[in-house]
User: Fold these one by one.
Assistant:
Number 1:
Amino acid sequence: MTPALELRDVYKSFGRTEIIRGVNLEMTAGLRHAIIGPNGAGKSTLFNLITGKYPVTRGRIRLRGEDVTHLRPHQINRRGLSRSFQVTNLFPRLSVFENLRCGVLWSLGYRYSCWHFVNGLRDVQERTEAVLEQIHLTARRDVPAGVLSYAEQRALEIGIALAGSPDVILLDEPTSGMSRSETEQAVALIRRVTAGKTLVMVEHDMSVVFDLADRIAVLVYGEIIANDAPEKIRSNAAVQEAYLGTAQATA
Amino acid sequence: MFELVFFSLLNGLVFGMLLFMLSSGLTLIFGMMGVLNFAHAGFYMLGAYFAFTLTGYLGFWPALVLAPPLVGVVGALVERHGLRRVHRFGHVAELIFTFGVAVLIEEIVQAVWGRVAKSYEVPALLDFPLFTLFETSFPAFKAFMLLISVGIFVFLFFVLTRTRAGLIIQAALTHPSMVGMLGHNVPRVFMAVFGLGSALAGLAGVIAGPVLGTFPGMAQVLGSIVFVVVVIGGLGSLTGAFVASLLIGILQTFAVALNYSLTDLAAAVGIGLSARSAFADLWTVTVAQVAPILPYLLLILVLIIRPMGLFGTRET
Amino acid sequence: MSLAAAPTARRTAAGARHYGLWLATAVVLAGLPQVFASPIAIAVMNKMGIAIIFALSYNMMLGQGGMLSFGHAVYFGLGGFIAMHALNRLAGGPWALPVPLLPLVGGLAGLGFGALFGSFSTNRAGTVFAMISLGIVELVASSSLILKGFFGGEEGISGNRTKALVLWGIRFASDVQVYYLIAFWAVAAAGLMYAFSRTPIGRMANAVRDNPERAEFVGYSQRTVRFVSFCAGGFFAGIAGGLFAVNYEILTEEAVGLARSGNVLVMTYIGGIGYFAGPIIGAVVFTFLESMLSDYTPIWLLYLGILFLATVLFVPTGFAGVLMMHEPARRAGRLHRLALPYLGAGLVALVLAVGLVGLLEMVHFWSAAAVGRTRMRLFWTTVDVTSLVPWLVFAGLAVGGALALRRLAPRAAAAWNEATYGREGAAS
């Protein structure tokens, strides 16, 4: 079965600094994957490579079997891959509803149309309302995104990534900066909305990771040192030494 | 022929160094603050007009000393009370603001000094031909202009590389936020650099006024060329500004001196081009007539192919 | 199902309001020449109509798309030139065009050049885009002296609109007939531009303006979105240019110049770039001041410049923004509370303005007047600029007005706060 996402011998250098050194990774379709690793390991860089923001120095990236290594972000997105950002990256002057609608438009095939009126498009309205429901922001639909609370913005972040019904979803530290209860809500949301899809998540919160993930990959200094089921990762000696040593107490 | 080349080169050098005096201030301001100061040529104009008025009361030499700092003060005030306010709205808002300042300066000059060109004369002390070659003479005042421009270049080089303030400015050119975090009063540095840049532009106006003319349109004439120089040289790079200034200065001067057209070129190869065809305009236009367009063609080409210019390291 | 019903009802009411507004506008525009019938008024209204279309087209790029262009006059002017050439070359022949179609020719020309220049301009936004636009406008303006066949050199290109194909007996010989043509195109163009902002591409233009990176991550190429906005802006600018050609029957190189580009930036900005109607307000105000002020003072452009800079510094949302700022107070019925504080602040601002204007006018007169002339007409009285008295009076007015404004402006702001948010501090 074709992996949803595949990285083969991926290297990335910025100038003379090598950040990603020969990453080989396969994400099975329909499962929830987490990428963990110490700070500076290159997790966000990996996301930026996959989504086309940075070009790879060497190597191949395949999305459902198709080579997407040198495609631009919008081209990759159109093939069914979507991402959220660690630092909130919304359309601040547009309302919550309009933010989500932006995520919906291309996926429903409206492209650069200048002959449809968005307010009259049934399918766009319904899909946007549905996502709005899912992220529990229906009451805030007309509020400009820039004035939302932090947790609401994080929920909107995830919402925009989901709005286009992507097959593969990349979430970059979705619960960063959240309190205990907000994190629990976010985890429930993620579990609900990623049912049946492939999720790849970068996370620091180990409880979230072990709660949600079917597979965990460990990235240390630009290399994958393990990629396995949670129990195996928990007992992996190399991982414990490199990373889980101090987190053992909280997991 | 040699006469043409020699004097074109010399005049090109003078013009190029003048452009450098203008573009150095602009590139410093851009490099540090990220704002492309549309009003820069306006300060050039203010320098000329201030010097003209001061010359009337005190003579040329006191005016030469007093006018540039006066313009610098105006610049610092504009930064302190205007630009700083607009800064938080982003680069587009800053550009619109400096555009507004440019318009305002031009209108104020017209309101206060009138629309007619002013007879801002070369001072008697320098009003003689320095040397004469074949039949063309080279005015001493132009040599003086060259002297001042080179002096400014040396001064800038010295200040930026040998003094502490200069090192801070150099650092802020590429890493402004880091410099702020190192404890330097960045807003004050910005104001000082803006004032210094404006003063340099003013000085350029003081010495160029008698030669290039002192009239309300003088800012527009040079304004766009200075932008071309700064962009081609690389936004934020003084070396780039220097190279590009000389390049454009010499290129323009040579082009203006050449009166050959495509028709002449074709004739030299034995082809006669009809002067009445639909494209007659294009065949008969001379290099001299095309000269004003060349910088803008170059600007567009550079912005498409290599937006960071010859020596620049960033685009914005 | 109740959730779906409420929005539909809301939409129907809003829809009726929308169409009602457009209809009312059309009716008002049709009636204006009856009210303001003098030739000067008609000429000014024609100028306003053209400016409205031009400013709206500019805001498609600036306000909607976040692209600051210094070269928008290129599409306006080239559209006008091509329309003029079409009129001249095709008149009397098998392809002769009627006057009402000439703006469309201009529009298509504007679209064509927009696509041409936009193909390389829209790769980047921000400062680089602004610089490229500056290069383009200077390039075109400079070529106007070289390509004499197209631009007509110093005299420009002129034409005669009565020579065009005549439909239904309308020869467009009078300015009033041209007014109705301009009014028609203004409503049509504004309607189309408004509709554009409600389409997927129009909405994504806003998104790309706010966050181009995120727009890419929802499937839209920021280059393509900007390119489409740019072409659309060029199209409508070309329509305005075509109307300009019809109205004035002559076109010179200043139509493609930097000054005209600057003017449209100024009028759009003072109107308010964040609102659809902003450029309309700005175009009307700018044209009015341009036409009327020049009769009273030679330094009217200075006042416009001060107005522009004051807008940039103190009221960046423009006239439209200021109007919309009072919407919550109006809805809460507390607008009347602003009457007194605004009146007070307004009066002292007026005093300050009179003082400044007096000083500026006197300075200008002093420097520009012929030798020996010392008396000027200022504010309906005669003033001797060599005497100290008027200087002191106006300086006093200016300083006094400024000091008083410093005290009364915060009170007006507090009154606005109270009217908008209510005494309890909650927004309603």
Number 2:
Amino acid sequence: MNSLKAFKKIMIYAILIIAAIIFAFPIYIMIITSLKSLPETLLTSSLSLPTHLDTSGYITAWNELRSGFIHSFEFTVPAVFLSVILGSIGGFALTKLKIKGANIIFMFLLFGMFLTYEVILIPLVKFMATVGLYGNIWSLILTHTAYGISITTLIFRNYYTLIPTALIEAGKVDGASTFQIYRKIIIPLSLPAFAVASIYQFNSIWNNFLFGLVLGTPNIKPVTVMLNNLNGSVLPIWNTLMAGAALTAIPTLIIFILAGKYFVSGMLGGSVKG
Amino acid sequence: MKIKKSTLVSIAFILPSIFIVGIFVYYFIGWTFVVSFTKWHNIAPNWTFTGLENYITLFFNDQRFHIDLINNFIFLPVFVIGTLVIGFFLAVLLNSGIKFESIFRTIFLLPMAISLVVSGIIWEWIYNPTNGALAILFQLFHLQPINWLGSMNFALPAIIIATIWQYTGFTTSIYLAGLRGIPKEILEAAKLDGAHGLKLYWNVIIPMVQSSTITAVVMMVQIALQIFDIIWVMTQGGPAFATDMPAVYMYIASFKNGNIAQGAAIAAVIFVLTLIVVIPYLSTFGKINTEE
């Protein structure tokens, strides 16, 4: 019986290790190729480590993608901020302010989470042109904010249902206005929800491709779109492409490795555990 | 009638979201549907009403759209079943009280933290017939390298594998949360009743994680129906439409060919297809989430 148990354990580890190797394999390929010289990517086995470290791929990729990096930060940071604030005040209003039809409003907002982006793509571009924002960084900030509201509202709403309403009542007795209650009681209590929503939003906005593709004029083109353009060039420069891919992935990968718990929580709709 | 100041403040907290979502979601959807019934076939707006003409053309006269639907209906079940089965299996293993669980989980989730553009480019390199990683592995086993993405037969499966790699961490997380939510007493009771091994999974655990399964199916079906990024990066629908999808056609029609009405009609079809899974889900999801 005991040896059977030990055998089972070993099998579990063996399968998990094989699965982990398969899952990490593309990332491994990306990193080793990014550190090779161009001739080496074509002449030696693509599975083997670089014979000597070569940063030319990174230098070329950085020169090509630098402006995209700046653009991506320029719209991602404000859009994360705005969508998180809107989600927070909305979630607060829906759970603590006794609004009539709060559930209907919630469903109205939630539907955006299940939206197929194709169905809004044409009017989105026409709308930005009509209001004079096409080619302006605000087109991307507004778009990412708008389509982030559903998930951020869900995250905060789920979190605020855990905050006892008695706290709000106590604040009211003390004569605090709704805004003061939000600022002095709710915000300090909901820092984990802010972390979850911000991390989730940063990840999805930074990694987004479609909105950047249709709204990204050269002066605001996101890094993902620029990376794909680099991919479209005639000769496949694999070391540069892999270096560009690694550079593009670095911001979200760092956040994920540092704060994976919050990332998962956001993915699961904000079931935040303390 | 005098509205209390506090009511106005309450409304002010939620109004910006309602306003923005109202425009960017509902108004835009309406706009797309209206345009899909018009003759807007060039850059210049043409609001002439044509009824269902654009849809009739798509369904009865448009070979590319037929290919797209077939491709999507191959992609969808393979992708959904792949991510669910592998995700459930990995979640069960992760939940079996092993050491280093968080390290394994982090590795399985890594692809979820990178852009589909990044993964698309990496997989293109892996599938490259000259010195790509897969070609090297094939050589080790003395097999003929295959031009995966250039092949009519292999391009779509190759993309499906890359997409499963990207999203399996998601289903693993959903199932892991579901498995952790099963009360210990129920498992103990089932074991006392003689449920072991596969029987325990089939009769007790799988039914107990049903809501995880439903969530995962809805999410994955939705991703499959609107799949665009990874295909645009890896093959742009080629070779010869072997990996073309409705969303790719929609993008080309609207943004490359300027055929706005046609693009709107394709988008509307994709949207309606997703509603088939989203509406039942949203009504139960809403019920669960609005109970307090």
